[in-house]
Amino acid sequence: MSLPPVVRIRLARLADAATLTELGARTFRDSFAAENTPEDMEAFLASHYRPEIQEAELRDSSLQYLLAEISGAPAGFALMRDGAREQGVRAERPLNLLRLYVDRPFLGAKVGAALMLRCIEEGRTRGHDVLWLGVWEHNTRARAFYRRWGFTEVGEMHFKLGSDLQRDLVLALTL
């Protein structure tokens, strides 16, 4: 019997921009390509995942990337933004979880749980009172994951994927 793999979470560095670009595009495509048109997917990926975009995000002091690794291989990531607030989010110091994705080969290896735990810890350590996010109304797997962590629905917002305007649920967790 072997031990489960150890998930290591670290702050991403500027040198991780290309890794985050590849990992982000791959995990987004894996998560949503089946439910969206190829044209909308490619338009979204081109506007959100290019090395220069991730480099700018890594330089932005209001954003924080966390990179999950297993045996040195990138397994997932999270991206948080300080101070952003959506309607329904009641907080003095909100923290927005913009992205949390796990690479397909690592699904079931507790990478998502490790990332979420670290996001919550980061939020509390930095004095935030609420962690909130938007999740696509049709993403039942993610909605169940967030529900297990205690997130509750507080509103809705729109998300544009290519030319398709989609409905996201706004979920929040008191820290």
Distance between the termini: 37 Å
Which segments are poorly predicted (pLDDT under 50) over 5 or more consecutive residues? none
Number of helices: 5
**Total number of beta strands:** 7
SSE order, one letter for each helix or strand: EHHHEEEHEHEE
Q: Please give the oligomerization state of what you see.
A: single chain
Spatial shape = globular
- The CATH superfamily is known as Gcn5-related N-acetyltransferase (GNAT)
Q: Which percent bin holds the helix content?
A: 25-40%
Question: What is CATH's topology name?
Answer: Aminopeptidase
How would a crystallographer describe the biggest sheet?
7 strands, mixed
Spatial strand sequence of the major β-sheet: 1-2-3-4-5-7-6
Describe this structure in words.
By secondary structure, the chain is α+β, with helices and mostly antiparallel strands. The protein has a single domain (7-174), classed as Gcn5-related N-acetyltransferase (GNAT) (Aminopeptidase, 3-Layer(aba) Sandwich), CATH 3.40.630. Helix content is 34%, strand content 34%. Strands 1-2-3-4-5-7-6 form a seven-stranded mixed sheet, with helices on both faces. Strand 2 and strand 3 (73-82) form a beta hairpin. The longest helix is centred in the N-terminal third of the chain and has 16 residues, at 17-32. It starts with 6 loop residues before the first strand and ends with a strand.
Which helices and strands, and how do they pair?
Layout: E1 7-11, H1 17-32, H2 38-48, H3 51-59, E2 63-70, E3 73-82, E4 94-102, H4 111-125, E5 130-136, H5 140-148, E6 152-161, E7 164-174
Parallel strand pairs: 4-5
Antiparallel strand pairs: 1-2, 2-3, 3-4, 5-7, 6-7
